[in-house]
Amino acid sequence: MAFARSRQALAIAGVLGLALSATACGTGNDKKSDAAGSAECAAYDKYGDIEGKKVTIYSSIRDIEEDRLEESWKQFETCTGVEIDHEGSGEFEAQLGVRVDGGNAPDLAFIPQPGLLKRFVDSGKLKPAGAETKKTAEENYPADWLKYSTVNGQFYGAPLGSNVKSFVWYSPKTFKEKGWTVPTSWDELISLSDKIAASGTKPWCAGIESGDATGWPATDWIEDLMLRTQTPEVYDQWTTHGIPFNDPKVVEAVDKAGTILKNDKYVNAGFGGVKSIATTSFQEAGVPITTGKCALHRQASFYANQWPQGTKVAEDGDVFAFYFPAIDAAKGKPVLGGGEFVTAFADRPEVQAVQTYLASGEYANSRAKIGDWVSANNKLDLANVANPIDKLSVQILQDKSTVFRFDGSDLMPATVGAGTFWKGMVDWINGKDTKTVLDGIESSWK
């Protein structure tokens, strides 16, 4: 899920950046040949002769994020002479299938669910990525990411934007005042929670209400705990039904999450008891941190957009986040996250060129400079990432010890991942026992 922050300073910087680009590479109305001699355009010669060509892109990216997206490839358009026509839609997942089946597929689509990507591969509609795109992707992204766009040994496209879900939000100011230390292990996290609870304050606040998608924040908890109680290989088996949903390993992870989420001594600060989690919107769930009513809130990097206006998000600010600690640090740093993949429904040279460019370090840095964006691209220079939580996210994604796994519910069949899993977690929060909930989800998968 993506949320936008409007920043006047960034907008001004973007305008100035475009003006400088226009000076170096010519204006958007100039021919590629007019800009070809500039040093800034030399980096784009490798994409071949695509002047005068047009490439269409369809995605779920809208509003200010869409403006930033289109700004991010302006120089590429100017220097190569290609035209990129992007359309964002709130009905992307549903309408993409309609368009593809109706013979009106876009050239490229940014698909955020590996399961949806596989569906289009299985239908024979998605085109394998070209050799240059594959080479660029393998140079710039960890194998943990590329496997999610590889089906039956065939690679279909590199990631674009990313998010990190393994975060716990807190108030640096409150921690300093109380003498609390950011935990770096699971035991330290529980010890801190107990300490806060003993002081008379419930340490955790949570909320899983999200309209038709109610329940998804709780599935993120389970996924993070699957990665912390089990091996990455077991996580992979779980998301592909290699083990049943009610396997003892899954029970262990759910019960581990329950030591926090279903603990009356821990939750739900500022809202009520355990059951209030089901009716508290995920947007509002962490807000009590800003008023001192809550100390800890587990939510993804994109939650930075949900704080009240004027809230400073920084290590020395009103709120910040720390890595959701591993249970056994010796097994590496498990990280849960998501993102979208650049996939192609056409294989014309200009389409392959744009697909390759979007996998490049040049693109990652161009987009990062505009602001409010995270990528797992290892060519992304941290100096180009201004937002503190985005910088922390990129550092985690680029950390060699990171073991990344994609959001599990996005890997499962939609009837499970966005259906019975979501609903089952609501039932679980409302008091239904773990076995009954997991048995029900397992039955739905069968």
UniProtKB/TrEMBL annotation:
<keyword id="KW-0813">Transport</keyword>
<comment type="similarity">
    <text>Belongs to the bacterial solute-binding protein 1 family.</text>
</comment>
<dbReference type="InterPro" id="IPR050490">
    <property type="entry name" value="Bact_solute-bd_prot1"/>
</dbReference>
<keyword id="KW-0732">Signal</keyword>
<dbReference type="Pfam" id="PF01547">
    <property type="entry name" value="SBP_bac_1"/>
</dbReference>
<protein>
    <submittedName>
        <fullName>Carbohydrate ABC transporter substrate-binding protein, CUT1 family</fullName>
    </submittedName>
</protein>
<feature type="signal peptide">
    <location>
        <begin position="1"/>
        <end position="24"/>
    </location>
</feature>
<dbReference type="InterPro" id="IPR006059">
    <property type="entry name" value="SBP"/>
</dbReference>
